[in-house]
Amino acid sequence: MKDCIFCKIVNGEIPSMKVYEDDLCMAYLDINPDTDGHTLIIPKEHYEDIYELPKDVLEHIFNVSKNLMNDLKNKLKCSGYTLMINYGSSQEVKHFHLHVKPQYKDKKFVEFIKHKELLKDINEVHKIIKEA
Ligand code: AMP
Ligand code: ZN
Questions:
Q1: Could you tell me whether strands 80-84 and 25-29 are parallel, antiparallel, or unpaired per DSSP bridges?
Q2: Which of 14, 38, 88, 118 gives 33 a disulfide partner, CB atoms 3.0 to 4.6 angstroms apart?
Q3: Which atom from ligand 1 is nearest to the alpha carbon of 90?
Q4: Which residues are known to be catalytic?
Q5: Residues contacting ligand 1 via CB (< 6 Å)
Q6: SS3 track for the chain
Q7: What is the pLDDT of residues 2-22, one digit of tens each?
């Protein structure tokens, strides 16, 4: 869809830190991460929200999220995850996306807010995920 930032990512018109791709979906790091490795999984086709998204694509995205979580667990040494879907006034980008947020046992969320300011370069996290 024209003027959709996530469609532009799918088409390669704007860059992303891609960590996974298949025929139906792709996953890339969130540009403003809440935790290290915060990833978004999106359908390649434009569906505005959870209500528009076909059931089989949703199921596929959830299966991909489970594989991705295993991968992130090995590479980033996280201890858990939060999966999140925003809708309506909570949804900033109107192209469906599933947030996958790795969590780390000894770090509370507030530390990540501080950490975010200190996070020099999310490229570093991307490098770990892609190369480990
Ligand atoms: P929401 O629509 O509220 O669920 O969240 C949209 C998410 O997309 C936010 O966490 C943003 O940081 C993220 N985001 C916006 N633009 C980009 C981009 N170009 N690349 C990666 N993540 C993005
Ligand atoms: Zn779109």
A1: unpaired
A2: 38
A3: 3
A4: 97
A5: 5, 16, 28, 30-32, 40, 86, 91-93
A6: CCCCHHHHHHCCCCCCCEEEECCCEEEEECCCCCCCCCEEEEECCCCCCCCCCCHHHHHHHHHHHHHHHHHHHHHHCCCEEEEECCCHHHCCCCCCCEEEEEECCCCCHHHHHHHHHHCCCHHHHHHHHHHC
A7: 899 999 999 999 999 999 999
